[in-house]
């Protein structure tokens, strides 16, 4: 009898130790995806006159819709949240429900402090003041107190001319497919995207492609895929500058940067893939030429809204220097009247953002006090479920984003290398690939920070100073 008891205790202890180890590994694997501690409060600071703050009494089960001016189109609900014990292991989420409106927005595991829930679609649903909005937490709770609702009047008008600027092929689709499909838009992609390692031998693919072939494929994608959103090749151009070199080009404005040897892309040949009069003849592969290209496009399109990467919150250097090139061209053209809409395809805090599965709402990205570079306001573009489906098709049509099969190369790899990613995914409870844009970008919201051309240029300049000073 005592022998059986000892055996039972040993088995129970082994199970407990194994379970504890698995949960610790799960948390460790998840936390590795973050450059900050989820217990830090986020900060949002908007300085424009079109942003207002309304005090709202919030209980554990929701709040009452306040009186909103008719021109308000965006809203961020500031909640002081705390993940429950299970919210350290499972994705915490806030469910929002009012009449026929339903939404769910996910936050990071173990979250504690101020976070901003995006209620712009709730505002757009025009539910009458005084109606109750139900909030329900999954693995999360919040302080029932007076909270702040940040509202913004930033909107796109029918007569706006929109220029979407993408550092690489697919950035325009990830950030702004819904926006460009719904407006009078022109798309300019700066680089050919030849730096992609997706089709390299060491990445375990069936078919390996040279840099030149990757460049042709991605330039072609960036010119043709926008047609899913109604933007034809006469208004979708790729300037074909080299991927990953914009910072170097900026440092040496008249240096040529396209000589990569025999395997390298053919700059002039790539540009001939374009079908638009927006492409200038006689361009050379220098920063000065890039700015000249952009000046020609700005003077032809005369955009009232320019959509570009946020120079600081999106930390990819090609993204920051794309915005720098646009700002230089704007200044040279004397473009004063208009607004910049900044997007963040990459994120300084975590590449997992937006959190949660495709189709769920997009809460504000994690922004800490040291990341703040003021913008005037914000704009969240609403995508219908049909538009989200089209966006999925557009992203899936991009060769560099779609899931490529790897049967032959997979067999050639040792079994442990094939199973390692699956084990990691099982451990951290996230689907593979972790930062897939098919999960992160197919959402009902496309979020932008907005500011004037003048403030945007200033913000870009301050970012370049930070980059030069080595601030990360
Ligand atoms: Zn990019």
Topology:
Elements: H1 2-31, E1 51-59, E2 62-64, E3 74-83, E4 93-98, E5 101-106, E6 112-118, H2 120-124, E7 132-138, E8 140-142, E9 146-152, E10 161-166, H3 171-181, E11 184-191, H4 211-224, E12 236-241, H5 246-251, H6 267-271, H7 287-301, E13 305-309, H8 317-333, E14 339-343, E15 377-382, H9 385-397, H10 407-412, H11 415-428, H12 437-440, E16 445-452, H13 453-468
Parallel strand pairs: 10-11, 10-13, 11-12, 13-14
Antiparallel strand pairs: 1-2, 1-9, 2-7, 3-6, 3-8, 3-9, 4-5, 4-7, 14-16, 15-16
Helix pairs in contact: 1-11, 3-9, 7-8, 8-13
The protein binds zinc ion.
Zinc ion binds at residues 167-168, 171, 316, 319, 345.
Q: Can you describe this structure?
A:
With 472 residues, this protein is α+β, with helices and mostly antiparallel strands. Helix content is 33%, strand content 22%. The chain contains 13 helices and 16 strands. The strands form two sheets. Strands 1, 2, 3, 4, 5, 6, 7, 8 and 9 form a nine-stranded antiparallel sheet that branches. A hairpin with a 2-residue loop joins strand 4 (93-98) and strand 5. It is globular, with a radius of gyration of 24 Å. It starts with a helix and ends with a helix. The relative contact order is 0.15. The structure holds zinc ion. Zinc ion binds next to loops.
